[in-house]
Amino acid sequence: MPTLCVQCSKDRAVIVRPKNHQKLCKKCFITTFETEIHFTITSNNLFQRGERVAIGASGGKDSTVLASVLKTLNARYDYGVELLLLSVDEGIRGYRDDSLETVKRNAVQYEMPLTIVGYDELYGWTMDQVVEQVGKKGNCTYCGVFRRQALDRGAATLGVEHVVTGHNADDMAETVLMNLLRGDIARLSRTTSIITSTPSATAVANPNVLANIKRSKPLKYAYEKEIVLYAHHMSLDYFSTECIYSPEAFRGSARALIKNLERIRPSTILDIVRSGEDMARLCPGYEDNCRAGCNTAAQGEEEEAGCGSSVGRSAGGEMQKLEAILAQQHISEDGNSNGHSIEVEVKKVVTRVSKVKPSKKAPVQQTVGQCEKCGYMSSQRVCKACVLLEGLNKARPKTGIHIADGYI
């Protein structure tokens, strides 16, 4: 007897949700997935009627699913927003040039205007040139910083004040775990927030940089595996090759740990995300950060997982294996050998803890200003992008820092 869908009790179940092991038919899975995204959008008031929203499109599964779902939900629930595609060309031959072809097809498929901004025109460097100069070790630092500014500047050129990105629950959990393992709890307010923005007080001199560009993550609570399943069953056109410069990064270790925990407890990913949100509320200055749009990114630091799911993903290509299995239509009735989560009993350990007097030193509050060279938001005199560019340009004595309208 085939297993029936637990929701409609009519059609055969073909999917076991990684999030909770629910057995669903194709139609119910798609409806449930879209409804959960809609709930995330409405419960967090992500969109305002009449708003122009740019989708950070890389051609990968996350941004492609995001574009498809937002187009569907915008029509179904009448959000009243105008959707556009905004892509960044980092200048990586054999990777980004191919993925941008996918984005161009998506623009036609979803009937959305597409704008592409490139590192070469903004900074005078492509990532191929950067890697040739600095090597593969640490190149993601350059790319993350440059990409964040490129998205903001692209949005400014379009007159758009809201950019949505395809960060999913797996990305969020990995970032929370990385910050915990590094002891960097202060960053949790930004990394766990579904909305971040440039403070309106940061009025920049450069007319091509908006004073208030909001970013949001509609897929924040969506599992990566379910995004792959949705893309497969909706027959979406996306690019699945990872970045050729992606290193064996710390993120890959965090990802491998989370995947091992997920096999034991499926809710691990969301548990980590929720825990990160709760811990962020305990951090000094949390309320101030939230009133300013949860913006600790104004320090000029790169966005975690800046180029999407390809950053530092070195855990064995699990998603590629899943995509290959789906492509061959090798989905079993229940999708899992046992269909049950395994709970591990942890015995209480009593440890003697010495009393330590709490420090009375007040946390240092950084003041958000603007970079003296390019006008971008920064808590330092010169933003991180300009510092990195200055180091690169030492090998080009006659080449200035190329940002926006001209050389600086």
TrEMBL record:
InterPro entries documented for this protein: CTU1-like_ATP-bd (IPR056369), CTU1_C (IPR032442), Ncs6/Tuc1/Ctu1 (IPR000541), Rossmann-like_a/b/a_fold (IPR014729), TilS/TtcA_N (IPR011063), tRNA_thiolation_TtcA_Ctu1 (IPR035107), UPF0021_CS (IPR020554)
The source's superkingdom equals Eukaryota
State the Gene Ontology BP annotations: protein urmylation; tRNA wobble position uridine thiolation
Look at the named UniProt entry and state the broad enzyme category this protein falls under. transferase
Q: Give the GO cellular component terms, alphabetically.
A: cytosolic tRNA wobble base thiouridylase complex; mitochondrion
Q: What's the EC number here?
A: 2.7.7.-
Its annotated pathway reads: tRNA modification; 5-methoxycarbonylmethyl-2-thiouridine-tRNA biosynthesis
**Which compartment or compartments is the protein found in?**
Cytoplasm
Alphabetical keyword list: ATP-binding, Cytoplasm, Hydrolase, Nucleotide-binding, RNA-binding, Transferase, tRNA processing, tRNA-binding
Ranges of residues in domain Cytoplasmic tRNA 2-thiolation protein 1 C-terminal: 369-399
* Annotated positions binding ATP: G56, A57, S58, D62, V88, G166, D171
Family annotation (SUPFAM superfamilies): Adenine nucleotide alpha hydrolases-like
Q: Name one GO molecular function term.
A: hydrolase activity
| TM segment ranges | none
The residue ranges of the tRNA(Ile)-lysidine/2-thiocytidine synthase N-terminal domain are 53-242
Q: Which family does it belong to?
A: Belongs to the TtcA family. CTU1/NCS6/ATPBD3 subfamily.
Free-text function comment from the UniProt entry: Plays a central role in 2-thiolation of mcm(5)S(2)U at tRNA wobble positions of tRNA(Lys), tRNA(Glu) and tRNA(Gln). Directly binds tRNAs and probably acts by catalyzing adenylation of tRNAs, an intermediate required for 2-thiolation. It is unclear whether it acts as a sulfurtransferase that transfers sulfur from thiocarboxylated URM1 onto the uridine of tRNAs at wobble position. Prior mcm(5) tRNA modification by the elongator complex is required for 2-thiolation. May also be involved in protein urmylation.
Which named protein is this?
Answer: Cytoplasmic tRNA 2-thiolation protein 1
Species of origin reads Microthyrium microscopicum
